[in-house]
TrEMBL record:
PROSITE patterns, alphabetized: ABC_TRANSPORTER_2 (PS50893)
UniProt-listed InterPro entries: AAA+_ATPase, ABC_transporter-like_ATP-bd, Bact_Antivir_Def_Nuclease, P-loop_NTPase
SMART domains: AAA
Protein name stated in the entry: ATP-binding cassette domain-containing protein
Domain spans labelled ABC transporter: 1-288
Segments for region (Disordered): 450-474
Record flagged with keyword Transmembrane: no
An MF annotation (GO) of this entry: ATP binding
Lineage top rank: taxon: Bacteria
Alphabetized UniProt keyword annotations: ATP-binding, Nucleotide-binding
Pfam families: ABC_tran
Record organism: Pseudomonas lutea
Length: 474
């Protein structure tokens, strides 16, 4: 089981939802989206593959019509569930192989989540646990202890033990005189993390957790992803989860965060950056002006250019790197209709020069490109031809591509990021003046002049910045 794809049709508010995952990637997959977009329905659909009565157990019949269906493709073999009027729910004639069911483990939120029902099993096992502790027949789960101590920044789990009863591992913290705290008497967050660890150790290829953060405090939320990421590779699992926690999203790395929304009547997730999600879901209010950039290097480069006239800046501004030129322009356009940053004239996008000729950029308003392909590409081009002024500074460096060179120059203190910016900015081959003027006009005062635009044939005239309201003198 490697590739899992599914399509939900006509269930609840969903006309069509498409989702796919490559289980060979062994990674974290975080799904975020506005309330009600359909995250829990997707999670239920995944569980339905394992337990065909999932919807009957967790949803009213009113969410179905006779056109309701879910199709799953596992390594291109289709398993289709359709509405069955007798059951008033979904049903299938297909037999889902055990190898598939075994590799999916889904945790729904309250009251259906297994984490909330596990205590029945542990209560039954209590006598065996007690006996094992008295006889000292237990193991020390070093990895779990390290995980809990790390996430809670404590050493209180040092005396955690693992007792195996009928092939299920139970966990307790030992006290003196054969006393112990059973895992279900720990805090709800601690208990949840233990249950999550138990899932990971089962090597189930796809672990799905709806609302992973609900019982975790803010500090624990910021450490969870780091722990889980290591386990994904070690145990060959993928942990797919939904969350509304901004602190948790912030700790995710590129490739782990997906935003679910409806486009052209199809709901599906797309890869996004933290700042993209933060902008859409939480806003970035509090500044007069916003500059959206492609990545952190471009953001830093903007700050370097702005340094040249920082003392004269009138507006309180924020540069935000979004990740990917398309996403930058997409956010800019969404802001024009939804206004989650500010009014349209207060937000611009700045992209690398290598995007300037692309259609989506040519069409975009209030979007500007720097007059070099990108900081990394421009320096790499000089490196490749052995440009004298650069080689004088760098000496011999070996690099495989633009990003590699950039990283190495900074990491080995050959040039600082500011040195690289300066090197490019003062170079007569590139004319940064129109671009800098545009930024000045945007951040200083008054409307931007027509010559201010940096992209060929494009100016900042669309922006039409109002005259600033100077605060009254004190
Ligand atoms: N019978 C129904 N017919 C149509 N829509 C329904 C029905 N029942 C619930 N809904 C809608 O489905 C949405 C809930 O879907 P779901 O639980 O999948 O969302 P979610 O993305 O998990 O949301 P949250 O982030 O709030 O947990 C709600 O907006 C609700 O109004």
């Amino acid at each position: 089981m490697t590739l899992l794809e599914l399509e939900i049709r006509n269930i609840q508010h969903i006309t069509s939802m498409i989702f796919n995952v490559n289980l060979d990637e062994q990674k974290l997959i975080c799904l975020v989206g506005k309330n009600g977009v359909g995250k829990t329905t997707l999670v239920k659909a995944l569980q339905n593959l394992q337990f065909a009565d999932t919807f009957t157990q967790t949803s009213p019949a009113s969410i179905f019509t006779d056109r309701s269906a879910i199709s799953y493709w596992i390594d291109s073999v289709e398993y289709r569930f359709e509405f069955d009027p007798r059951l008033r729910s979904l049903n299938t004639k297909a037999i889902i192989p055990d190898s598939i069911k075994r590799n999916i483990d889904v945790e729904l939120p309250m009251p259906y989540g297994k984490r909330f029902n596990f205590f029945e099993s542990i209560v039954r096992a209590d006598l065996d646990i007690r006996r094992a502790i008295v006889l000292e027949k237990y193991d020390v789960p070093v990895e779990l202890i390290e995980m809990l101590n790390y996430i809670y920044d404590t050493d209180k789990f040092n005396r955690l033990i693992q007792v195996s009863v009928k092939k299920i591992n139970y966990y307790c913290i030992l006290l003196d005189q054969s006393m112990y705290i059973r895992e279900d008497y720990l805090s709800s967050g601690e208990f949840f993390l233990i249950s999550l660890y138990r899932k990971v150790k089962n090597h189930c290829k796809l672990i799905v957790i709806d609302e992973i953060d609900i019982s975790l405090d803010a500090a624990a939320q910021t450490k969870l992803a780091h722990s889980l990421r290591g386990f994904c590779k070690k145990y060959g699992v993928n942990v797919l989860f939904t969350t509304h926690s901004l602190p948790l999203m912030k700790t995710l790395v590129h490739g782990e965060l997906f935003y679910i929304e409806e486009k052209n009547a199809i709901i599906s997730p797309s890869l996004v950056s933290y700042n993209y999600v933060k902008s859409l879901l939480f806003g970035f209010s509090g500044w007069d002006r916003y500059i959206l950039t492609e990545d952190i290097v471009l953001q830093n480069f903007m700050e370097y250019i702005i340094d040249k006239f920082r003392a004269r800046i009138f507006f309180k501004y924020k540069t935000i790197y979004i990740g990917g030129g398309n996403n930058v322009v997409d956010l800019l356009n969404r802001n024009a209709s939804e206004g989650f940053f500010s009014d349209v004239q207060n937000v611009i996008a700045v992209l690398d020069g290598d995007q300037a000729e692309l259609r989506y950029v040519k069409k975009a308003k209030n979007t500007f490109c720097i007059p070099i392909d990108s900081v990394e590409k421009a320096i790499y081009a000089d490196y490749q031809v052995g440009f004298k002024r650069l080689i004088e500074k760098t000496g011999s460096v070996t690099a495989t591509d633009a990003k590699d060179l950039y990283k190495k120059l900074i990491k080995h203190s050959v040039m600082s990021e500011a040195d690289i910016f300066e090197y490019l900015y003062v170079d007569e081959r590139f004319d940064f003046t129109p671009f800098t003027d545009s930024l000045k006009s945007f951040l200083l005062t008054g409307p931007v002049s027509e010559e201010g635009g940096s992209r060929e044939g494009e100016t900042m005239q669309d922006i039409n910045i109002p005259a600033p309201q100077h605060p009254p003198s004190l």
